[in-house]
Queuine tRNA-ribosyltransferase
Amino acid sequence: MYKLLKKQGSARRGEFTTPHGVVQTPVFMNVGTLAAIKGAVSTCDLKEIGCQVELSNTYHLSLRPGDKIIRKLGGLHKFMNWDRPILTDSGGFQVFSLSKIRKIKEEGVYFNSHIDGSKIFMGPEESMQIQSNLASTVAMAFDECIENPSPKDYVERSVERTTRWLKRCKVEMDRLNSLPDTINNKQMLFGINQGGVYDDIRIEHAKIISEMNLDGYAIGGLAVGETHEEMYRIIEKVVPHLPQDKPIYLMGVGTPANILEAVERGVDFFDCVLPARNGRHSHVFTSQGELNLLNAKYQLDDFPIDRGCQCPTCKNYTRAYIRHLFKAKEMLAMRLCVLHNLYFYNNLMKEIRDSIDGDYFPKYKREKLEEWNQ
């Protein structure tokens, strides 16, 4: 259940109540594809750096270790020792991005595993069954992910198929939640808005899926090649046509600036591999913008990554030391930078929530963008 606490313009401050706790929104979900954050960050670390929601991947976990194994071990929460909400994506994006050979049919998608090339089929029912075995808090509907740009007639057909698949997802999830041996029989379902960069297709699809009374709604198929301006335009067009009493999730986005712009346009949920991926490659986010700690100028720099930052890394280690760790190829370098970046994102979301609560979000956004652009 989503409760809107406050609005400033289109920016929303809310609470999302789930079977695994209440999420304060806007929120950034920390991406743990294979039930782990890349960079040797544990679930205990996640709590320390203020993570509210962890995101894992249906497709990857169905291959390794296998969703049936996770089910036998009591579900994903127990498996990875995490008692807060988990969102699992449907596997749709991975089917389309990782598989070179695939056949899309009405029943679902036939493709080859990116690990061993074995033949796999996944459709709406299979995606829901895997996610039910994982027992995540929120399951994402299985949709078709298309490239931007794609021909309009193809996008229209694809979106119609995604709608039919969403209806099948809902029926299957209702069935699974009614079974006596389902681990999480209160599993929630989010639908996904698609339509490429075509405003009219996006709006029409938003209206159709809004009538299905789902637990939340996502805007998918963005941050895949279109410009930032196109992305912001689509968000502005779509958000007013989604239910305002449900959370709105912008999938796979993005940079700190992207998040501020999307919050201003009414988005509540975010996820992105950027903070962890960049951290593993020595790039860190700070109040002064992004730094590359491999630069020679940090060799004798005995300041923390970001002065004033309260993350475990900044409270204990210097830029010079972390640079040395990267040069020496020590795994600790990645861990310290990923910890810092995820703290930066989670803290950014807390500051955004505080600014909406305090009626100064536009000022906060303007000042942050100015700081980062310097």
Observations:
- The longest strand covers residues 11-18.
- The two ends are 40 Å apart (CA to CA).
- Residues 279-373 form one domain.
- The mean pLDDT is 96.
